Amino acid sequence: MTGEGIPPADTLAQLRSELAQARQQISDMAAAQEDFLRGVSHDLRAPLRHVTSYGALVREVLQEQPPQVDEALGFLATMEQSARRMAQMIDGLQAIARARSAALRPRAVALTVAVQEARQALGAAAEGAAWNIAPDLPVVQADAELLAQLLVQLLGNAVKFSRGVAQPRVQVQAEPAAQGGVRITVRDNGVGFDGTRAQQLFGVFQRMHREAEFEGVGAGLALCQAIAQRHGAHIQATAAPGAGCTVALEWPAAAR
How far is it, in rounded angstroms, from Cα 137 to Cα 18? Predict the structure, then answer.
């Protein structure tokens, strides 16, 4: 403290930086909560409407004499598909909620090992791609379980969206970032998407492709963002149609 009771300039600068970070984290949490509630109130209603409306149609058909069995089975198939999709959406929301609220247990995690384990977790789906995983990936401070979930999602997406190309490739690299952090990139040569919509990609139930083309409900990258935010990390994506996608993680030196 100075003679006037005012902290030194470097202390004030640090306090301002910490305050700005705290405000940004609060803003991110508020935006995430709003996105979460929007997903619950809107996106879950569509499959639920299918279940209820087609249930009524099945009841009407089966009341006819004789029953129109083929038509009824078609209605039931739509109901079952919608119910499965709704279950996947609920599972996705639960995973995001757990990632946001679970106690964080950061420790040193060897990224090379974590990436290889995530690749193995994909099973047969990973076998069709050519993998280029940098051999010198660093050690990061992270909750090992949450980091594993994040990597499985990122690698799984890279495999899924590149499986239609003749020679699918997935590349994982890392390089030093600001303030002792690390920049982790997962790159594929798949179908890509309109890069101007990249920020939407991390919203709950946001998709860039039709469900008929690629399975999933659009919760995976929202989960990745929740996990990244818990660690004080930043995630972003760049892409172009037909030119693949690159997801970059700016991981801090220490989880916070």
Answer: 29
Same fold, 9-100 and 106-251: no
- Mean pLDDT over 117-122 rounds to 94
Note the pLDDT tens digit of each residue in 139-164: 999 999 999 999 999 999 899 888 87
Q: Where are the domains of the chain?
A: 9-100, 106-251
DSSP state at residue 40: I
Kindly report the CATH number that applies to the domain delimited by 9-100.
1.10.287.130
CATH superfamily of this structure's domain 106-251: Histidine kinase-like ATPase, C-terminal domain (3.30.565.10)
Cβ-based burial of 67 (10 A; exposed 0-12, middle 13-18, buried ≥19) = exposed
Q: Up-side HSE of residue 37: CA atoms within 13 Å toward CB?
A: 6
Distance, CA of 133 to chain centre: 20
Q: Where are the alpha helices (DSSP H) in 122-188?
A: 144-160
Give the angle subtended at the CA of 160 by the CAs of 235 and 237, to the nearest 5°: 20
Sign of torsion, CA 124 161 45 32?
positive
Mean pLDDT for 84-103 is 80
Mean pLDDT of the residues in the chain: 82
pLDDT of residue 233: 94
The predicted model gives 119-139 an average pLDDT of 91
* C-beta separation of 198 from 238 below 8 A: yes
What's the average model confidence in pLDDT over 23-32? Answer: 73
Rg, Å, the chain Cα set: 23
Owner of token pair 């916070």: 256
Single pTM value for the model: 0.69
